[in-house]
Amino acid sequence: DLLERPNGTPLDSYWQRDSRYTAGELGQRYNIRITNHESHRIEAVVSVDGRDVVSGDLGDFAKQRGYVIPAFGSVLIDGFRQSLTHAAAFRFSKVQTATPRARARRSTRA
User: Fold this and answer.
1) Is the pTM value of this prediction over 0.85?
2) pLDDT in tens, the chain (110 residues)
3) What residue ranges in 28-105 does DSSP mark as E strands?
4) Distance CA 90, CA 22 (A)
5) Residues paired with residue 51 on neighbouring β-strands, in sequence order
6) Which residue from 12, 14, 35, 110 has the fewest beta carbons nearer than 10 Å?
7) What is the largest distance, in Å, between two alpha-carbon atoms of the chain?
8) 28: which residues sit within 8 A by CB, 6+ positions away?
């Protein structure tokens, strides 16, 4: 997995213990690239900030559909899917302490 700029260059990432952190600037766009290193296809169910990138629902790998990645292939995810041809760009935002569930409650009230 790799976060990259829209032009394809990787964003700087840092490991601390078992977690990976990526440095980004407020409002900066980014894409997610997932590479399959296996000899068979895989499905990747991806969530950003607790939201499934395909459906926009709360992320749940057991219930959501994902991207099928061919053997030794990769997929570029350029934002939250709005249709088969359009996506809402991923952008870095301020860190919030609220849980994804609390953010979901706020977003449904608007």
Assistant:
1) no
2) 689 999 999 998 888 888 888 888 889 999 999 999 999 999 999 988 888 898 887 877 888 788 999 999 999 999 998 888 888 899 988 876 545 554 554 444 33
3) 29-35, 42-44, 47-48, 51-52, 67-69, 74-77, 79-81, 87-91
4) 14
5) 48, 58
6) 110
7) 45
8) 5, 91, 92
